[in-house]
Amino acid sequence: MTAKVLVVDDIPANVRLLQAKLEADYYDVVTAHSGQEAIETAIIEQPDIILLDVMMPGVDGYEVTRQLKELAETRHIPIILVTALDGRDDRLSGLEAGADDFLTKPLDDVILFARLKALVRLKHLSDELRQREQSSRRMGLIDANQLHRQMTAPGNVLILDDQVRQAERLMVALGEQHRCAYETDPKAALKIALGRVDLLVLNLAARDFDPLRFVAHLRSSELTRQLPVLGLFNPDERPTLLKGLELGVSDVLPRPVDIQELLARARGQIRRKRYADFLRASLDRSLELAVTDPLTGLNNRRFMDLQLTQLMRRHLKTDDPVSLLLLDIDHFKRVNDGFGHDAGDEVLKEFARRVSQNVRAIDMPCRLGGEEFVVLMPDTPADAAQTIAERVRQAVAEAPFSLPDGRTLDVTVSVGVSSLLGLGDTLEAFIKRADEAVYEAKQSGRNRVILRAA
């Protein structure tokens, strides 16, 4: 896995040594020799990960980490703090500052590269979402206050451990800040993980089940692939640790568990997941807005054009029938002129609701524009489409529409029906036939369905 790594150390020999090791493993390496230079280089180079020495003159690694995590340009970059210090307070200081991991000198190369690959993999998964963030902000789809609330709210933590007493201790400790539950059965845990779980704490030293197989199963399922896993490992079981990181464990913590470090690592994993979830939801909203009419909630013309092209392609390949309804509300201008645009909007929304309730699940109602609507009908011959069109017409005409001021209004619709005719037919001709049928319905007195088969 190739990636760009920023190596930061005030001792040139340390930088050269790390650079040589990383480049031998095909990493692209950039370097910095001070805290301030590290910040500037990170902004310009946008590395995939930062290896940052803690003990530097001037701005130390903790402060560099805090500043990088405060900058919008760099807060997404994982940081591994590297230091000769191995005290509990030092690790906690680094994690609290925003670091993703904390490695001590002399570096264990195998552990270093395992952590690099794990963190780079996580970053690559989130990069596409992050790139969408700016466009989502421009569209007003990201509320900074809502994002802050979501990222700092208590998380849903599931503990999977075959040692009940340890699981209970973990649940009590994590329960001070989060909503927690524990399971000893991996099958039961997997069912829970399909729900709203923000973090899974897994005992990698479990003996009653295979924790590595459980991780592999999580990562093979689309529904649980993004779920963060914090693995608890025995320091003397190095192969298990390395295999866990390779399979997709997000973060690791040695046993016996330091509760404060557990809380710090859990908080970091939950915040990262909440951020990714928020961006995915924002992206979903932006995609929905791109193909949805904001007034009626129906699909818009852009969606209709895309679907028509696909339906036409499939029709020419398989000869499956495709039909279309073109609906035009009768005398709609009189509604706007006589009752006001608010009344007109209410009529359009109620009309869309009645159409949606009277077509089938496979049909695709769309608002073409103004008072014109279209229903795309895959796998539907002309006679079936005409029957459904008549049902829609009756649903519109049978009950008055309620207006915002309490008055009611009778509304009718003229409907044109057309179907694709196979080779030689075109989308333009398909739509034109429906349009001509609507015109005929209008000329014939409105409030009727006309089929234009050819």
Automatic annotation (TrEMBL):
GO molecular function: diguanylate cyclase activity
Keywords assigned: Phosphoprotein
Enzyme class: transferase
Catalytic reactions of this protein: 2 GTP = 3',3'-c-di-GMP + 2 diphosphate
GO annotations of cellular component type: plasma membrane
Keyword field contains Phosphoprotein: yes
Span of domain GGDEF: 320-454
Residues in Response regulatory domain copies: 4-120, 156-270
Keyword presence, Phosphoprotein: yes
Stored SUPFAM superfamilies: CheY-like (SSF52172), Nucleotide cyclase (SSF55073)
Enzyme Commission no: 2.7.7.65
4-aspartylphosphate carried by residues: D53
GO biological process: cell adhesion involved in single-species biofilm formation; negative regulation of bacterial-type flagellum-dependent cell motility; phosphorelay signal transduction system
PANTHER family (alphabetical): DIGUANYLATE CYCLASE DGCM-RELATED (PTHR45138:SF9), REGULATORY COMPONENTS OF SENSORY TRANSDUCTION SYSTEM (PTHR45138)
Protein name: diguanylate cyclase
Organism of derivation: Asticcacaulis excentricus (strain ATCC 15261 / DSM 4724 / KCTC 12464 / NCIMB 9791 / VKM B-1370 / CB 48)
